[in-house]
Design brief:
heterodimer, A: alpha/beta, B: mainly alpha, two-stranded antiparallel ribbon
């Protein structure tokens, strides 16, 4: 038994979850993290590097990897000590004209062998700018259709509307991720 | 260098294949359960069921979806039918997912307690495997938790459980662990504790003098007791336990058994935790002692397993201490103790493997303490960063290798934990930030240049945590992200890629400081010659980018010069080799060149090549001579005599070891860069002819200045016989052609004549079957080298070739593509694919057959002999008779190549399939005809005039012919043909008898028996054939007698000659020594046969 297997076992005991936060630029990824950490969300500039933040969530440690929208993603799939347990894909509800681009990028991630099995949460962010319940439903339908969510088979997947600005639905999102990972990795804990 | 993902991905993700594997596992298991297979049933293949689930060992959670249903189903089946294989399946599940998780699904009906107990008690007499006992005891460990009072169940259960588990905690197999767990759970039960716990404690006193298994089991039970019961329950026993553990630690067993030391570590720290839980405020002395011992002994244990355990133990105790150590005195003391013990300051002590163990243990403990937030004091940040950096450079040189790779691994882990658990590490503190930057720099160096892939990857992971959580350490965010992207997990999987490409990229980012110094001081001097070479190349790339090549060339020269004579050969090789790399990229107008020339001369003049280090030193020197010659002496003036001496000394070396061949190729590469006219080619030809392969090879590197005499000499050497020159000379000549043809010189197009000569020489190579009793088929080296050269230079070789040359090459390759040696078969097939499209002669059929997917699938080519021959045998039925004959000749070498080998079997099967396939009728007829013609020598195997000993070939073909008889492929030929076959068979028979070769006589018996059965064979032929076989019966070769009697028996049965059958059965032909009896029997058989006709 080498150091690596010891560390992997330990990680499971520590209930650590590695969450990769992805999406086109300006989708609001960093704002979501800031809101979750209770930081000021009014001033966020484009993420050039990447940031790792840890959020404690009902006994789990969510290590959120916030990767800038322009980055090449492969280096983030896994590293020596850990691999990705869940993916959070952020869609910008206020620029639906980029949904097609979004689909192209999402497809690359979804089809990546090394991410197979990781839970996939799609957050439709900035939903607060859409006024009526009716139009919100329409946006969600459009996202579902354009991204062809029903065709994703190698990930457990769900779509949620949210607002990083107001915090709406963010906790629900984290709960979904924690539950999904729990189902897979901590079924008997 | 283009690196793709796949090249580096050595870790395919099980997550992707999980659903399929699990489905297949459940399916196979349910099949087996449904058919109620018993353990010996032939339908049952437990291994195949288990093989579906074993890949999950490293990702056990993935089996969770099916775990409960599977365990329940198998347990039920076991209760119904008690098969061992049920236990085997359960054992594998426990092994993968752990006893705690799996055992919760074992049925726990109270009635089962006695049932499983009985199973175990009765297992004595039965032949149960330890796996079964392990599973049953694990099951028992669940059942003993039953909430009913055990005394109420009758049958003395309580006492029986105690006796049983006590017995098995002394077992040598793994069932001991399950028994320890069951016993511990039993001892803490409310209804048994009062009676049995004191009893057990009393019993365990004597164990330390007992055997190792009893000691292991008892220690495991004690460790388990601590985690199951409250400290209060155990309080009265603590002194007793302490005594028992101490005496075990002192026993001989402990020093010899790492596993025991590990379990003792566990029990000891749990004892300490228990004492801590019971103390009010003062930290008990026993805890201090325990920690002291863990740090000074267990953490520096020689075994990794124990160090892991000790690091965990220390951090657990320290973590608990932080809760009562309000004054914050005790924990800092532990940490200081740890620093002093594991990382002593004194540098004068000789570093040995104990030092590495201590460092490794110490770093592991630090990482554990970090993870548990025990080291959350800012005052340790500096010290931790210092230690991490020192750990990242840790290496202790031994004579031929170095130790300490595990220390660097642990240092990466410390860095990773530190960055991860302390988001405020830098906190605007300038000094700390600087240290973090330096650590990041060191980590980058490890990620690029460490010899071990796990260290490179661990360092890269730590870099990610550093950038991701402490972005302030890089000057701008862009740098951070590019660094992380460069140090990609997959990309750094390849050592060469990491060393050469990625290092260069990170260097341009400016993150690692002192990369050049690191290379020079560390990697260029590595104990591993491959690392030294890579480091030399890496340094050259960097200094070239920076345009400081001249400066570094001088630096390397100085360092080489300062090395003490007769020592430090690794360093000397490293510096000089790197110098070669740097000179290679040095601009020709660099102002340092005159100085370099001067200093080089000093170094070379005094350079010595002691025998045991000569090959690496020559390698280094030659590496410099090439670039030095072309850089300093463009006109051929002033080539120092030392250079030529070194080259010629290197080429004079002989021997078959890889180091000689490395030296030869370095020398050739130096030669190829020498200015025109420097080498006296005629002298080298003479040297070559004295049997020195190095010079032969080097003649090929004289390009582009070759003259006719060189080519002609090489051709002569290549086609010489073994008597004239050893095979190594011929192989070297063929490889010299390879080098010659690789050159861009225009001699090729000028001289079609040379090409033709070379082709002829290569053809000789393809036909070299030199075999020596002591060395085997040494000709195969030459055949292989020839194929390689032909393939590599097909375009040049066949640009203006004569069709007769083409035919010869083609038929030779076709033959070899069906012969017995795996590598040659594949090489020639690949060669055919390359050359056929270039030929002028028609080879459409060959082109079609070799272009099909079966011939491009490496897996089929290397592993599936059957598929290969089934496919390629079609060449034997080619419409071009020379192709058909060549292929048949090759295949015969397989079919007649002895018994039992998979290739022989595959070839024989392919022949039978081919003959039986009706859609191939035309082809198989041509195949049979080719074989027969070859056999009766109606046709020469020409134009592939193989120069091999013909008896061997004859007997190989004879086996093929006999196979034809067996499959009725020769049943209806003309009578005259059988006569010819008989005549040849008779000749072979005589030859085989003369040489006393029973196996070969056996082959001819096959032919004679075939002739009996051929409908159109004349009576005369049949009689003659029968006489030959009967004649064997009285010969001296017992093995052949048996074969003859078998053949006759078969013949007699088919013809209803019962009398013959009877006579044959009277005697044991393989052992009988009674000449008279043999003669008598033979006579009677002859008479009887003549009577029945």
């Amino acid at each position: 038994m080498g150091l690596l297997s010891t560390i992997r076992k330990q990680k499971l005991k520590d209930k650590e979850i590695r969450l990769l936060m992805l999406g086109l630029d300006n989708a609001g990824k960093t704002t979501i993290v800031k809101q979750l950490l209770g930081e000021d969300v009014k001033s966020v500039s484009p993420t050039l590097g990447f940031n790792i933040k840890t959020v404690d969530w009902h006994g789990y440690k969510l290590n959120i990897w916030d990767v800038g929208g322009q980055s090449s993603l492969r280096p983030f799939w896994r590293n020596y000590f850990e691999k990705t347990d869940a993916i959070l894909w952020v869609v910008d509800a206020s620029s639906l004209d980029r949904l097609q681009d979004c689909k192209v990028e999402l497809d690359k991630v979804v089809q990546e062998d090394r991410l197979t099995g990781a839970g996939l949460l799609i957050l439709v962010n900035k939903i607060d700018v859409i006024a009526t319940e009716e139009s919100r439903t329409a946006v969600l339908d459009l996202v579902n259709d354009t991204l062809q969510i029903d065709k994703i088979t190698n990930h457990n997947c769900t779509v949620l509307a949210c607002s990083a600005y107001t915090g709406e639905n963010l906790k629900e999102g984290l709960s979904w991720i924690a539950d999904e990972v729990k189902q897979r990795l901590y079924k008997f804990d | 260098m283009v690196a793709t993902d796949r090249d580096f991905d050595d870790c395919p993700d099980i997550a992707k294949s999980a659903p399929t594997l699990l489905r297949e596992f459940s399916y196979r298991l349910n099949e087996a359960l449904a058919c109620g297979c018993d353990d010996s049933s032939s339908e049952l293949d437990v291994t195949s069921v288990v093989s579906q689930i074993e890949p999950f060992q490293d990702s056990p959670q993935l089996i969770d979806p099916i775990l409960e249903d599977t365990v329940v189903a198998v347990c039920r089946a076991f209760l119904a039918t008690r098969r061992q294989w049920h236990c085997r399946i359960l054992y594998v599940l426990v092994k993968i997912r752990g006893p705690k998780t799996v055992s919760r699904f074992f049925p726990n009906d109270v009635a089962l307690l006695e049932r499983i107990l009985c199973e175990m008690e009765e297992s004595e007499g039965e032949n149960r495997q330890w796996e079964s006992r392990y599973v049953l005891l694990t099951w028992l460990s669940v059942l003993v938790l039953t909430p009913f009072n055990l005394s109420s169940t009758g049958n003395n259960i309580a006492c029986r459980i105690y006796a049983l588990t006590c017995k098995y905690i002394c077992a040598p197999g793994r069932e001991r662990e399950a028994a320890a767990s069951a016993l511990a759970r039993y001892l803490v039960r409310a209804d048994t504790q009062a009676k049995y716990l004191p009893k057990y404690m009393e019993d365990s006193k004597a164990v330390s003098t007992s055997n190792i298994f009893a000691i292991l089991g008892t220690t495991a039970t004690i460790a388990a007791l601590f985690s199951l019961s409250s400290p209060q329950d155990l309080e009265q026993f603590l002194p007793q336990i302490s005594v028992v553990l101490t005496s075990m630690k002192r026993s001989q067993n402990a020093s010899a058994n790492a596993h025991l030391r590990k379990v003792l570590c566990k029990a000891t720290y749990r004892l300490a935790l228990c004492s801590l839980a019971l103390c009010s405020s003062e930290v008990p002395e026993s805890v201090e002692n325990c920690l002291g011992e863990l740090i000074s002994t267990a953490l520096a244990d020689k075994d990794t397993l124990v160090r892991y355990s000790a690091s965990k133990a220390i951090s657990r105790v320290a973590q608990t201490l932080t809760k009562i150590d309000h004054e914050n005195v005790f924990v800092p003391e532990i940490i200081d103790n740890l620093f002093a013990s594991c990382f002593p300051d004194s540098k004068d002590a000789a570093a040995d493997s104990r030092t590495a163990d201590r460092w490794h243990g110490g770093l592991l403990a630090l990482a554990e303490l970090l993870r548990r937030h025990v080291l959350a004091f800012p005052e340790y940040a500096m010290k931790l960063l210092d230690l991490t950096r020192a750990g990242l450079r840790f290496e202790i040189r031994m004579t031929t290798h170095a130790i300490g790779a595990n220390v660097r691994d642990a240092a990466c882990y410390v860095a990773w934990s530190l960055f991860r658990h302390y988001p405020g590490l830098c906190n605007g503190n300038h000094a700390t930030t600087k240290l973090v930057q330096e650590t990041l720099s060191e980590l980058t160096l490890v990620a690029c240049f460490d010899r071990e892939v796990n260290n490179r990857r661990a360092a890269a992971a730590a870099v990610q945590e550093c950038i991701g959580r402490h972005s302030e350490v890089v000057e701008n965010l862009e740098t951070g992200i590019v660094l992380v992207q460069s140090l990609d997990y997959f990309a750094i999987g390849s050592r060469a890629h990491a060393c050469l490409e990625i290092s260069r990229r990170t260097f341009k980012l400016g993150v690692p400081h002192g990369m050049k110094e690191f290379l020079i001081e560390r990697v260029i001097c590595s104990w591993d010659v491959e690392m030294r070479r890579l480091a030399g190349k890496a340094l050259a790339l960097i200094v070239s980018d920076e345009e400081v090549a001249g400066e570094y060339a001088l630096k390397l020269l100085d360092m080489a010069k300062e090395l003490p004579d007769g020592k430090s050969f690794d360093e000397r090789h490293g510096y000089i080799y790197a110098l070669g790399e740097v000179l290679d990229i040095l601009p020709s107008n660099d102002p340092t060149i005159p100085t370099i020339i001067q200093r080089l001369k000093i170094i070379f003049d005094s350079m010595q090549f002691p025998a045991h280090q000569a090959s690496i030193l020559y390698d280094a020197a030659l590496h410099v001579i090439g670039p030095a010659a072309s850089l300093f002496c463009p006109n051929g003036h002033d080539i120092p005599q030392t250079y030529m001496t070194i080259i010629e000394e290197s080429l004079s070396r002989t021997g078959e070891d890889p180091s000689t061949s490395t030296v030869h190729s370095s020398a050739c590469s130096a030669v190829s860069r020498l200015p025109n006219g420097i080498v006296d080619a005629h002298r080298w030809i003479e040297y070559a002819k004295t049997g020195r392969p190095g010079f032969v090879l080097a003649l090929g590197s004289l390009r582009p200045h070759v003259d006719e005499s060189v080519i002609i000499s090489l051709c002569d050497l290549a086609s010489a016989s073994q008597k004239e020159y050893d095979i190594s000379i011929r192989v070297a000549s063929v490889r010299a052609f390879d080098a010659l043809l690789s050159s861009d010189g225009d001699w090729v197009s000028d001289s079609p004549l040379y090409i033709s000569k070379i082709l002829v020489a290569l053809t000789c190579g393809l036909q070299d079957y030199t075999t020596l009793p002591s060395r085997g088929d040494i000709g195969s080296h030459l055949r292989r080298a020839s194929i390689k050269t032909i393939t590599a230079h097909a375009t040049k070789l066949f640009s203006s070739s004569e069709s007769s040359d083409e035919t010869i090459i083609l038929t030779n390759l076709v033959r070899i593509s069906l012969e017995k040696m795996d590598k040659l078969r594949l090489d020639s097939l690949r060669s055919l694919r390359v050359i056929v499209p270039l030929l002028r002669i028609d080879a459409t059929e060959i082109q079609q057959i070799t272009a099909e997917p079966e011939c491009k699938n490496d897996d089929i080519l290397t592993n599936a002999h059957g598929q290969y021959f089934n496919h390629m045998i079609r060449l034997c039925g080619s419409t071009v008779s020379s192709h058909s004959r060549a292929a048949t000749l090759g295949l015969a070498a397989c079919v007649g190549g002895g018994t039992g080998e998979s290739v022989v079997r595959a070839a024989r099967d392919a022949v039978m399939n081919f003959l039986a396939a009706t859609e191939m009728a035309d082809k198989s007829r041509r195949f049979v005809r080719s074989a027969v013609e070859l056999f009766i020598e109606k046709a020469e195997p020409a134009p592939s005039t193989v120069n091999r000993t013909s008896p061997k070939r004859d007997f190989e073909i004879a086996e093929l012919i006999s196979l034809f008889f067996d499959t009725n492929a020769l049943a209806e030929e003309q009578s005259s043909l059988y006569v010819q076959i008989y005549n040849k068979a008779a000749r072979l028979y005589t030859l085989a008898t003369k040489t006393n070769n029973a196996q070969r006589v056996g082959v001819t018996i096959g032919l004679f028996s075939g002739l009996f059965t051929a409908a159109n064979a004349s009576g005369k032929v049949k009689e003659a054939a029968a006489r030959k076989v009967v004649g064997v019966l009285i010969g001296d070769m017992k093995q052949a007698r048996q074969a003859a009697s078998d053949a006759l028996f078969l013949l007699a049965t088919e013809n209803g000659a019962e009398q013959v059958e009877e006579i044959l059965s009277e005697i044991d032909w393989a052992t009988c020594d009674n000449k008279e009896a043999l003669k008598d029997a033979e006579k009677r058989i002859c008479e009887s046969l003549l009577r029945t006709g």
